Amino acid sequence: MNYSRLALATLGATVAYFAFGFLLVFLVPGLIKESRKYPGVFRPKEEIERVMPIGMVAILIAILVVAIIYAMMHPAGSGLMEGTRLGVLVGIFVVCGFVLHNYVNLNIGLKLTLEQAVAYFVQWTIVGLVIGLIYKPPVAP
To answer: How far apart are CA 23 and CA 86, in angstroms?
Structure first.
């Protein structure tokens, strides 16, 4: 496993994850507006900002895990298509294991659930794509 490329892929995918997230908030403000309909479920903006570092570290670790899985699956590297394929699978996992699970357990509407499903699916697909582009195998001596 190429640890420097693994770190670089993790960093690059983390930047892409948050860049897409901020772009999404900017281009689709209705997503945040929709979540504000559920103040009993979601923290106010000020509280989110207070605990945001925990979320950022958690995402970094999650992306590191996905990068490690990619490196284990493709020790010789593989590129854009395999990274994207892994991202799609992780996106489906997140939608089913997190978004739809929350729809069942939390008192939120279907509209917000579907918006989150699309957003997270695309976000994790981008993560896989970036990992596939950046991760390369160790150079043989």
So the answer is: 23
Q: Which of 57, 117, 130, 64 is nearest to 91 (CA)?
A: 117
Give me 60's structure tokens: 């970094």
The residue type found at 23 is L
With residues binned 3-state (H G I as helix, E B as strand, rest as coil), the percentages for the chain, rounded to 5, are 80, 0, 20
CA–CA gap between residue 141 and residue 139 (Å, rounded): 6
Give me the pLDDT at residue 99, please.
97
Residue listed under structure tokens 């309909």: 37
Residue 140 burial (CB count, 10 A): 4
**pLDDT per position as a tens digit, 4-57:** 999 999 999 999 999 999 999 999 989 999 999 999 999 998 999 999 999 999
CA distance 28 to 133: 27
For 91, half-sphere exposure in the C-beta direction (CA atoms, 13 angstrom radius) is: 21
Per-residue DSSP letter, 42: S
pTM: 0.91
Among 18, 54, 85, 93, smallest CA distance to 10 is for: 18
